[in-house]
Amino acid sequence: MIPPKPRYQQLKDLIIERISSGELRPSDRVPSENELVESMSVSRMTANRALRELNDEGYVERIAGRGTYVSDLRARSHLLEVHNIADEIALRGHLHSSRTIRQSLQKARGEVAKALHVEQGTEVVHLLLVHLENGLPIQLEDRHVLASFAPDCLDQDFESITPSAYLTGIAPLQEAEQVVRASSPNAAVRNYLQTADDEPTLVVIRRTWSRGCPVTFARLHHPGGRYELTGHYTPPGTPRSASADVVQLEKLRQ
Amino acid sequence: MIPPKPRYQQLKDLIIERISSGELRPSDRVPSENELVESMSVSRMTANRALRELNDEGYVERIAGRGTYVSDLRARSHLLEVHNIADEIALRGHLHSSRTIRQSLQKARGEVAKALHVEQGTEVVHLLLVHLENGLPIQLEDRHVLASFAPDCLDQDFESITPSAYLTGIAPLQEAEQVVRASSPNAAVRNYLQTADDEPTLVVIRRTWSRGCPVTFARLHHPGGRYELTGHYTPPGTPRSASADVVQLEKLRQ
DNA sequence: CTCACCAAGTTGTATATACAGGCTAGTACA
DNA sequence: TGTACTAGCCTGTATATACAACTTGGTGAG
Lengths: 254, 254
Description:
By secondary structure, the first copy, chain A, is α+β, with helices and mostly antiparallel strands. Helix content of chain A is 29%, strand content 33%.
C-alpha cells in the first residue's frame, strides 16, 4: 500500500495539472492562499507551502500584495538537457502540434554520413517536421536517423509522437553533443517558421549516441524572437522568477 | 536601509558558511531542528524550513529518524563550466586581445538591479569590452558587477586579465544561469563586432552567483557567423538525495 | 543469548494564530 | 477636479502546538 501524498503536494499537483491542461494559462491568476484554504479545506500555511514551492520551481510568480500568477516563461529549454519539444510546450501549458513535411528513406551523404560515422550510402531516414506551439511555428526539425537503429521509423506517425520521444523509447540515450548557432535563415526555413525577413534563427545541431554509436543527427531551427535556450546551474535559494517575467506580467495586465 | 534577512535565511547562511569554511565536512551531522531551536532561539518550524530548503538545494541530506548530514558536494562542482573567452581562444591556438570601452561606477537601474537582486541605486561597476581573436572581434562583453563584491574592479586592467578570470579569483563563483538567444544587433553592437548589416548575433546572458547572491550580470554578444556554443550531455547519475549518498553515510558510520 | 518491545530523538507534515508590509481601488476631502 | 488616505486583500514570515513515521539503542522476557 502506498502512503497518500501529503496535502501540500496534492495542492501542487492540482495546480500543475491545471496549468498543463491549459485551464490556467500564463499570466492567469492562481487561487490565493485564502481561497485555497476555503476551497481545499487546508490551513493557510499548507497552501502557502504549495504556492511557495511552485514559485521556487518556476511554475508561478508571486507578488506580495497582488497575488499569484502563472509564469509565462518565454519559450525556454534547458541548454544542457535534451528535451522533447512537445513536453517543453506542454510544461508551459501550451498546445503542441506538428506537421510532417518529409519522412523518407535516403542514403547518407556528406555531412550526415560524417556526423553519424557511417559510410556514404548507408540508409538513413530523413524527417522534416514543423512543431507548433499554440499554432505558431516554434521549431523546424530536420533530422536524420540511422535506419538500422530504427527500422520502423518510416511507419511512425510523428504528429502523434515526436521523433525525440519515439527514439528515446527505442533505446536509452547515452550521450549527446550539440552546437548552438545564430544564423540568418534561408527562404525555405523562413517559410516553415513564418518569420520576418530579418529575424534570425537559433539553430541547435545535435548528435545523439546510443550504445556507443551516433544514431541520429538533428538540426533544429527556432525563430529568434520566440525562442531561447536556458542553461541552468540552478542557484540555490533564489527563486526562479526573474525580472523579465515580472515585466511581462505588467505588460499583460494593461 | 536594507531590511534584515528573514531568520530562516540567516540560519541557512550560517550553515552554508560552516560548510564552505570546512567546519562542517561532508557526511558530518548538522544540528538537529531541536538543537537549532535551543541555540538559535527560533521556533522549530523556522529551523525546519531552513534545513528543508538546504536539503532541496542539495547542501544537506535529511533522513527521517536519524538526522541531517552534509551532502557530498562533489557532484555540484562540475556544474559550472568556466567560460573564459581568453582560455577558449587560447585553446584554439589563437591570439586573444581585448579593448576596454567603458569601465565606470554606476547606480543599478531596472533590469540590472532586478537581475542582481539589489535595490535600485546600488553601486555597480559597468564594464564594456570587445574581445578579439587574432584581431577580429569575437565577443562584446557588457557586464555589470556588484561594486560591493569587487571593490577594486575600477582599477583593474581588463586588457591583461579578463573580467571573468578576475572575478573567479576574488571568490569562488558557485552557480550560474544563462540564457542563449539569437537576435538582430543594433548599430552600436554591429559596429563593435564589425559585422555585416544582416548578420545576426548570438547573445548569451549570464548571471553568476557567489555565496548565495548574484554578483555579476553579463550580456555577451557574438557575431553569428564566427561563433557558436558547443555543449555535451551525459545522462545524469543518481539524483542528489538518492541511495548513493545514504550508502556513503552508512559506510562512514562504521 | 535472542528476540520483542519500548523510549527517546529525529524528521515530516498539518493547523491556528499573529503581525508586517506591499498593492489596489474606492472614498473622503480640499 | 485632483489628491491624500484608508480599508481590504494579498503575500511573507514567525511561533506554538500536535501528531505521525522512522531510527536507534536499551531493556526486559523468554
